[in-house]
Amino acid sequence: MEYKFCGNSGLQLPIISLGLWHNFGNEDSFDEATQMICSAFDSGITHFDLANNYGPPPGSAEVNFGKIFSSQLKSHRDEIIVSSKAGHLMWNGPYGDGSSRKSLMASIDQSLKRTGLEYFDIFYSHRYDEKTPLEETMQALVDIVKQGKALYAGISKYPKEQALTAYQYLKEQHVPCLIYQGKYNLLERTPEQEIFPLNEQQGVGFISFSPLAQGILTNRYLNGIPNDSRVAKGGFLTADQITPEIVGKMNQLNQIAAARNQILAEMALAWVLNKPNVTSVIVGTSSVKQLQDNLKTLNNTTFTNDELIGIDTILCNH
Ligand SMILES: NC(=O)c1ccc[n+]([C@@H]2O[C@H](COP(=O)([O-])OP(=O)(O)OC[C@H]3O[C@@H](n4cnc5c(N)ncnc54)[C@H](OP(=O)(O)O)[C@@H]3O)[C@@H](O)[C@H]2O)c1
Fold first, then answer.
1. What's the rounded Cα separation, in Å, for the pair 69 and 244?
2. CA angle 308-293-314, nearest 5°?
3. Which of 43, 129, 197, 224 is the most buried (most CB within 10 A)?
């Protein structure tokens, strides 16, 4: 594993992190979840990414992570970075959604209880909430860090202007923003325009979520929709996104990957990791095999100009 400093901070993150949005809830195999987490840690993945609402049902990924952590990894607490988040709908009523001080403070206490951890390493505001003053959300993050419930603060999916205000507020309060978590992959390149330059200027790290576009950028859907896939299970990734056009492009990308001696997932992760602005990618996996395949990315994260032009030509109309 390689580790990279996160922005201007002293914290290094593994360039491949593991996310628990899917595949770690109560409807998933606890044994596979245990093996994925242990195998990840054994391979140098020291960073596990959670949120209050991961499951299903919401909260169960934190509960399951807590069980696995306490039975397998407790003695390694100081070698592990665990993040969680609050900001999306989690419980009923006016305080279970959004980014008020009340929501964030209640949510982190619930998340600590569910995981059994004494603190999170990183705590995020999961999204910008235009109904709450930004200063209120940021001051809650500052106080969470000052109370020792988290070591670092981060933000996710904030528009550029609000991200800048957040960075400035946090800096003034001496709790500089560690990291921005945003969607970035071969099919979603928006952060290049606004967030990458801003983060560079402000010394904030960037971690990419859904680096495989939830599985589109893998061999999963090259020949139809498998029964055990994320699309088949139902969720945010739906069958109408697996268009013939996308499948055609993925098959073409797969040929470039094969010429690099990589599977499509490896090449897609390598492409993200090749960007100097990216600190780490958070992969989601449904099996140890996928995880181990993704780790092979580390063998080659560089590209020739011809490969990059070939990839962009295939994706130019996307
Ligand atoms: N901040 C936010 O708002 C936000 C939003 C989304 C995600 N996240 C974070 O980012 C993490 C990753 O997101 P994601 O799960 O969408 O990531 P992803 O890595 O883009 O997609 C994961 C899915 O891709 C497929 N896959 C992975 N490796 C594969 C391989 N080697 N071969 C074939 N298929 C493979 C699997 O699909 P199957 O399940 O079909 O096998 C897996 O479930 C989340 O767990 C979460 O921590 C954060």
1. 42
2. 25
3. 129
Q: Which residue from 89, 283, 296 has its CB within 8 A of the most atoms of ligand 1, so it is best to mutate?
A: 283
> Which residue matches tokens 């040929």?
255
Residue 244: cis peptide before it, omega within 30 degrees of 0: no
Number of neighbours of residue 149 by Cβ within 10 angstroms: 18
Token pair listed for 198: 């801003």
- For residue 173, the CA-to-ligand 1 centroid distance in Å is 34
pLDDT digits (tens, 9 = 90+) for 208-262: 999 999 999 999 999 999 999 999 998 899 999 999 999 999 999 999 999 999 9
Rounded distance between C-alpha atoms, residue 250 and residue 243, angstroms: 11
Residue with the smallest CA separation from ligand 1 atom 30 is 290
Backbone angles phi, psi at 56, to 5 degrees: -85, 160
Contact 283, 28 (CB under 8 A): no
13-183, CATH topology level: TIM Barrel (3.20.20)
Give this prediction's pTM: 0.97
CB 54 within 8 A of CB 21: yes
Whole-number Cα distances in Å, 301 to 197, 208, 305: 22, 15, 13
d(CA 35, CA 1): 18
Q: How far is the CA of 135 from the centre of ligand 1 (A)?
A: 32
- Domain ranges across the chain: 13-183
